[in-house]
Amino acid sequence: MQSHPPISASRRARVLAKLTLALALAAGTGAIAPAAHAAAGYERGPEPTEAILAATRGPFSVADTNVSSLVVSGFGGGTIYYPTDTSQGTFGGVVIAPGYTASKSSMAWLAERLASHGFVVFNIDTITRSDQPDSRGRQILAAADYLTENSSITVRSRLDSSRIGVMGHSMGGGGTLAAANSRPSLQAAVPLTPWHLDKSWGGVRVPTMIIGAENDSIASVSSHSEPFYNSLSGAPEKAYLELNGASHFAPNSDNDTIAKYAISWIKRFVDDDLRYDRFLCPPPNRSTTIEEYRSSCPHS
């Protein structure tokens, strides 16, 4: 079993404070204290089920706002999707980057679907469509900073700026690794059929799920996703999902397997929502959609 670095001091303090409050309330009323995970996390939405994760939309209604490239610096603008609900507190944020030659439209399906599960999601364009992975990583971080500091009051009023995850496809997936390597305060990373010339990511300190594709002829799992996963020696948690029979472009259209596991990973580590552990640990078995799954289970 892999050893795991401790959680950050700030997160530990939040967890202990909430547990202390829960125990105090229980002691004062004679009630049984709630389970630790209920007090420690940022649970948003109903109890998760296979049916909820398989649906093309989650439980939250979503609105969106476009951000012009003319009003931002360091990336190419994009579209922010956010829950319309204001009754459950703030939501974690996620930045998604497209792959080489692609635009934000290639990842819009996943951005909107993720937002409907209770996240503020910034689906970005890159400065040029030929930007390389490290550049895309810097652009992901620039977009995260814009989201937390300069987005509209409507967006920021719904966003918990301390809880940000990152995702990306192909070179955007390589950029996701680069962003996670540069900013360990990120809560989660999900590279999708990632491409990068650097194969060693031992410096990443962010919970990372890599999703590869069995028939990827552009970023083959043997030279990209698998070496990336194997190199994540410093990540507090990691997982590798290989899509059965899928190509490099599987993340560019509706894919229930990608959605289920990416949403579960983001829920688990951006929201600290232990209700999603059961979809990730123990690892799912090989199936018609999953060729292979590896993980650093347990997460809790």
UniProtKB/TrEMBL annotation:
Residue span, PET hydrolase/cutinase-like domain: 37-298
Localization (cell): Periplasm; Secreted
Keywords: Disulfide bond, Hydrolase, Periplasm, Secreted, Serine esterase, Signal
Domain of life: Bacteria
Catalytic activity from the UniProt record: cutin + H2O = cutin monomers; a butanoate ester + H2O = an aliphatic alcohol + butanoate + H(+); (ethylene terephthalate)(n) + H2O = (ethylene terephthalate)(n-1) + 4-[(2-hydroxyethoxy)carbonyl]benzoate + H(+)
Enzyme class at the top of the EC tree: hydrolase
Signal peptide range in chain numbering: 1-38
Pfam families named in the record: PETase
GO molecular function annotation: cutinase activity
GO CC terms of this entry: extracellular region; periplasmic space
PROSITE patterns tied to this protein: TAT
Enzyme Commission code(s) on record: 3.1.1.101, 3.1.1.74
Assigned protein family: Belongs to the AB hydrolase superfamily.
UniProt-listed PANTHER family: DIENELACTONE HYDROLASE DOMAIN-CONTAINING PROTEIN-RELATED (PTHR22946), POLYKETIDE TRANSFERASE AF380 (PTHR22946:SF9)
Protein name: Poly(ethylene terephthalate) hydrolase
Record organism: Planobispora siamensis
